[in-house]
Amino acid sequence: MSDWVPTTCMRCAVGCGHVQQAADIGYGIDTVRGDAAHPVNQGLACARGIQESRDPDGQWLTRPLVRSGGELRQTTWDVALARAVEGLREAHERDPDSVAVLGSGQQTNEAAYALGKLARGGFGTRNYDANTTLCMASAVTAYYQAFGSDAPPCTYADIEDADRHVVWGANPAVAHPVMFRWIRQAADEEDVEIIVVDPVRSETAENSEHHVAPDPGKDLALARAVLARIVETDRVDEAFVESATDGFDALLDVLPDAERAAETAGVPTAKVDLLADALDQQALVYWGMGINQHVQGTETARALVDLTLATGNLRPGGGPFSLTGQANSMGTRVCSSKGSWPGQRAFEDPNHRRTVADRWDVPVDRLPDDPGPGPVGVLEAGPDAVWTVATNPVAGMPEADTAREALGDAFVVAQDAFHTETTELADVVLPAATWGESEGTTTNMERTISRVRAATEVPSGVRPDLDIIATIGSRLFGLFESTSPDPESIFEEFTALTEGTVADCSGITYDRLEDAHAVRWPAPDVESAGGYRYYDADTDEGESWSFPTVSGNAQFSTGRQAALPEPTDDDYPLTLTTAREADGYNTGVRSRGGAAGDLVARVHPDTVDEHADDVTEDRLAVVSRRGSATARLDPDEGVPRGMVWLPIHHPETNRLTLSELDPQSREPHFKQCAVRLTAPEAELPPATAD
């Protein structure tokens, strides 16, 4: 039998340690299980993480492909890379910004760092994103604005110490099952409760003590109602607010009346009191895509942070905890040069730009001075060439038909382990290694870095992400010393660039990870590791807080609920919302073989009855102003009347969604738009926007 090889699951962002065993004959993974020695999960693992590591259902890419005569045909790596380099070079020579690069939270830290180095330091393009803008940008922006730095202050260790677990706009029972097991175990203790805030009675709500159901998209109003109730009942932690924060008086000046805000949110005042009471305890406030993917995502995330600040819930056992979407979204945020230079070095700071340029040995004026428009803006700009790495924008972008058109007009290089809707229209397809064949590191949602190790050889015809990126970067710009760099050397280059920053990883090495299995940043030396951020209990004067903001204090915000970008009306009387299914990661390409299968719409039985004439053999069409999709009905009383629930990662769903953006984070408004239901045979062209 093969040896057991320790690694980290790359399914979701919990960062569970796995051990995996290669097949005895040929290549591939034979057995996977949780790693009892890994400090994050201590042997726990979810069935889906095991299954997708061992035997994903997606259609594997096994040979490079080049489009010829309108069809994709197998070719050699030399031919495919030459064609990719030629197309990217031609676009770059016209204008650096005519090259768009779209990365992913499915890469290792090393591959993400190398891709960012090539996008920013080689092409010098503004039009680069690491996929985090589609899921985490609002949380990131909120953290920066409130605390001066990105990432949760909390860690997994805080879960067992919290008295209240407020899960807001997230469904960890489906999205992060191992983490939710910890939350559920903590809530089994006496006087510990879970409160779920979600318009839909989700799987997490089914496993909680309380469910609060605001109207879709009205979470900001609800958060303000809760804060107003806390203020009205004199439960503000005035000592903390006075000593560690700025801006509370400005917030009070615009804070709405609790009852009026509750009415706007569609929530009874008793539920507002329930949430206010919860925050009077030691409370963790978790949130996810239901908050982030909204035109007011940043303001709403900040309003949740405001609740923790006002109640002094910014110490171990409490605080604001954003739940990360993709497996290595946190790593791409820290190392990929997407929203900041490595180590959270600010784009607009000329000294940081000079430091990065010097380390990369490129002209400083080649580096863009802002992080770019986000993926929606990238495709709206009409790039001449688009290079996608482990991402599927044809299915994952809002207004997906528009995204398909933009890619159809460009030269497209698609790099992935599996066939996707994007590889189908690419000019060059580069088959990449997947989890069990890759070496490097990843970073989970609580800032913990651990190793990713290969248990099996890379199949012939397939190459690791890092090698593909380094080869293209070397041929175009001489940016890498080797076309097959050692991942450890790339990791060392990245960590050295973080030295002295708020996200200092310079004390983390492969040798240290070999011994400790996992280390949380900031870790500025080989003995240190990050814990709860911004808080220090060991001072002569007792507790103290320190934030990397201009004033050194945490910042309150003043956002208030605004109108939704596309409310319902007579023509489109229903609200569409989107969320994950249990197999709904990465547009499902690892969890579905071949065609995507039926799109399933969850709809309240009463709403189904109202449209009974439109149902044909359990099917109907969901129509928005942008497109239509035929779905199989799943009557579900957990979905409110007047709402249609669709899985966000089915390739048909985002043909319907809006591309309106949060103006601060540039994250799209995936979560609400107006739709109608019609009979499948009566599907009509989408109405015009006016």
UniProtKB/TrEMBL annotation:
SUPFAM superfamilies: ADC-like, Formate dehydrogenase/DMSO reductase, domains 1-3. GO terms for molecular function: 4 iron, 4 sulfur cluster binding; metal ion binding; molybdopterin cofactor binding; oxidoreductase activity. Residues 2-60 form the 4Fe-4S Mo/W bis-MGD-type domain. Signal peptide: none annotated. It holds the Pfam family Molybdopterin. Keywords: 4Fe-4S, Iron, Iron-sulfur, Metal-binding. One of its GO terms (cellular component) is membrane. The keyword Ribosomal protein does not apply. SMART domains: Molybdop_Fe4S4. This is Molybdopterin-dependent oxidoreductase. The lineage of its organism: Archaea, Methanobacteriati, Methanobacteriota, Stenosarchaea group, Halobacteria.
